[in-house]
Amino acid sequence: MNQENPPRLRWGEWGEQGEQGEQGEQGEQGEQGAGGAGGAGGAGGAGGQGRIISNAQ
Protein backbone atom coordinates (compact mmCIF):
# COMPACT_ATOMS: atom_id res chain seq x y z
CA MET A 1 0.00 0.00 0.00
CA ASN A 2 2.99 2.27 0.53
CA GLN A 3 3.57 2.09 -3.21
CA GLU A 4 0.30 3.97 -3.66
CA ASN A 5 1.76 7.00 -1.89
CA PRO A 6 4.11 8.10 -4.74
CA PRO A 7 1.26 8.15 -7.30
CA ARG A 8 -0.81 10.24 -4.92
CA LEU A 9 1.96 12.82 -4.83
CA ARG A 10 1.67 12.98 -8.61
CA TRP A 11 -2.04 13.71 -8.22
CA GLY A 12 -0.96 16.76 -6.21
CA GLU A 13 0.64 18.10 -9.40
CA TRP A 14 -2.65 17.57 -11.24
CA GLY A 15 -4.29 19.59 -8.47
CA GLU A 16 -2.26 22.65 -9.51
CA GLN A 17 -3.10 22.10 -13.16
CA GLY A 18 -6.73 21.60 -12.13
CA GLU A 19 -7.10 25.38 -12.44
CA GLN A 20 -6.96 24.95 -16.20
CA GLY A 21 -10.20 22.98 -16.04
CA GLU A 22 -9.24 21.40 -19.38
CA GLN A 23 -8.10 18.25 -17.61
CA GLY A 24 -11.53 18.11 -16.00
CA GLU A 25 -12.96 17.24 -19.40
CA GLN A 26 -10.22 14.69 -19.93
CA GLY A 27 -11.34 13.05 -16.70
CA GLU A 28 -13.93 11.23 -18.79
CA GLN A 29 -11.10 9.29 -20.41
CA GLY A 30 -10.51 7.64 -17.04
CA GLU A 31 -6.76 8.24 -17.29
CA GLN A 32 -6.89 10.55 -14.31
CA GLY A 33 -9.00 7.99 -12.47
CA ALA A 34 -11.20 9.21 -9.63
CA GLY A 35 -9.26 12.47 -9.75
CA GLY A 36 -10.68 13.08 -13.21
CA ALA A 37 -14.19 13.00 -11.80
CA GLY A 38 -13.22 15.66 -9.26
CA GLY A 39 -11.74 17.75 -12.08
CA ALA A 40 -15.11 17.71 -13.81
CA GLY A 41 -16.55 19.42 -10.75
CA GLY A 42 -13.99 22.19 -11.15
CA ALA A 43 -10.54 23.12 -9.90
CA GLY A 44 -11.93 22.79 -6.36
CA GLY A 45 -12.26 19.06 -6.95
CA ALA A 46 -8.56 18.78 -7.66
CA GLY A 47 -7.83 20.71 -4.47
CA GLY A 48 -9.82 18.10 -2.57
CA GLN A 49 -7.24 15.53 -3.57
CA GLY A 50 -4.57 17.70 -2.02
CA ARG A 51 -6.30 17.23 1.31
CA ILE A 52 -6.26 13.49 0.79
CA ILE A 53 -2.49 13.67 0.32
CA SER A 54 -2.21 15.48 3.65
CA ASN A 55 -4.25 12.76 5.30
CA ALA A 56 -2.03 10.12 3.71
CA GLN A 57 0.97 11.69 5.36
Q: What's the short story on this structure?
A:
This protein is an all-alpha fold and 57 residues long. Helices cover 70% and strands 0% of the residues. Residues 1-57 are annotated as: Disordered.
Terminal Cα separation, in Å?
13 Å
Q: How many strand units? A: 0
- Put simply, the count of helices is 4
Low-confidence stretches: 37-48
Radius of gyration: 11 Å
Overall outline: globular
The largest sheet is: none
Q: Would you tell me the overall average pLDDT?
A: 51
The assigned structural class equals mainly alpha
Helix share bin: over 70%
Order of helices and strands: HHHH
| Approximate strand percentage | under 5%
Biased composition (Gly residues): 30-50
Region (Disordered): 1-57
Outline the structure in words:
It is a single chain. It contains 4 helices and no strands. The chain has a domain at 1-12 and 41-57. It starts with a helix and ends with a helix. It has 57 residues and is mainly alpha-helical. 70% of the residues lie in helices and 0% in strands. Residues 1-57 are annotated as: Disordered.
How would you describe this structure in keywords?
single chain; 57 residues; mainly alpha; 4 helices; 70% helix; globular
Q: Can you lay out the helices and strands and say which pair or pack?
A:
Elements: H1 5-17, H2 22-26, H3 34-41, H4 43-56
